[in-house]
Amino acid sequence: MRKILSIFIIIAILMNTAGCSDEWRKKFVRKKKDVAKKPHIWQEKKYSDEPTEALYTKHYNYAITWLSELSDDLGQNNKKDLRCAQEALGQICDMQNCLIPGKAKDVDKHIKRLEEVRDILKRGDLDQANKDYVRSSVDREERFIRSELYYHKIKDFMKKSFDKEAAAEPKEE
Q1: Distance from C-alpha of 73 to C-alpha of 81, rounded to nearest angstrom
Q2: Cα–Cα distance for residue pair 173/165, rounded to 1 Å
Q3: b/e string for 36-47 if b means 16 or more Cβ within 10 A?
């Protein structure tokens, strides 16, 4: 029995050193060929420098959505309320940038009201009185945007370009 065990150990050692080692296996195994990667070609796209109906309506829809979400979920989550107020304020400012200076000035007082709302939410001072004030302010601003800043009402007051010099006057009918 001892003889068989010693022969088996010797055979295992010889096989390990002779043909079954990693170096021999690496020598005879095929290597994967490197496939040449195709380079990515990026084409620059020219964007127009003028405010369009699609751009304005996108900001309009986002502003309405953020304001209605703020009004519906007010007081449930302070971080979400603050985010809704900031996003709505940003969208309204982007809408204002599409308007000529005379009409854009009319939107300033509404932006200031939303900044007050944002400041109240930032302080975290949302007791029942402030909550009612914020909700009524947000609802009032949402109604104003829906009624006065709708694209078909405002399209005559759109800028021709975002450049300050190229701001156009309203069309006369």
Answers
A1: 7
A2: 23
A3: eeeeeeeeeeee
Do the beta carbons of residue 60 and residue 147 sit within 8 Å?
no
Q: What is 53-157's CATH topology? A: Four Helix Bundle (Hemerythrin (Met), subunit A) (1.20.120)
Query: What is the tens place of the pLDDT at every residue in 49-95?
Result: 677 888 889 999 999 999 999 999 988 999 999 999 999 999 999 99
Calpha distance 16→57 (Å, rounded): 74
> Residue 99's beta-bridge partner residues?
158
> Is the model's pTM score more than 0.70?
no
Q: What is the DSSP letter of 155?
A: G
- Mark out the alpha helices in 19-127 (DSSP H runs): 22-28, 53-72, 78-97, 101-123
C-beta of residue 81 within 8 angstroms of C-beta of residue 74: yes
Rounded-to-integer distance, Cα 140 and Cα 165, Å: 34
Contacts of 173 (CB under 8 A, 6+ apart): 156
Cβ-contact 89, 140 below 8 angstroms: no
Domain locations along the chain: 53-157
